[in-house]
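WARN retry 2 of 3 for item q-0093 after timeout on previous attempt; input resubmitted unchanged.
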Amino acid sequence: MDALEQLVARMESGDLPLEESLREYQRGMELVRSCQEALDEAQRRIDTVMEASAPPSPGPTDQNDSTKVPDIPESDDTPF
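OK item q-0093 returned
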């Protein structure tokens, strides 16, 4: 990131010849890609940690559990 900031400062100064500006621009694009890859990797690591620390999902429900209230879909054509 520091190298990219320094490169931008040199380019913004307007003192670079065209050829050198083009080389610096190309180098800047490489640095941007590198920074993006580092950010993507950090995000993957964060996602992995978050998934590992997430509470476990409830297991399958027992169809014979008499304490569970049945899920009855609401319908507008219920007679009562």
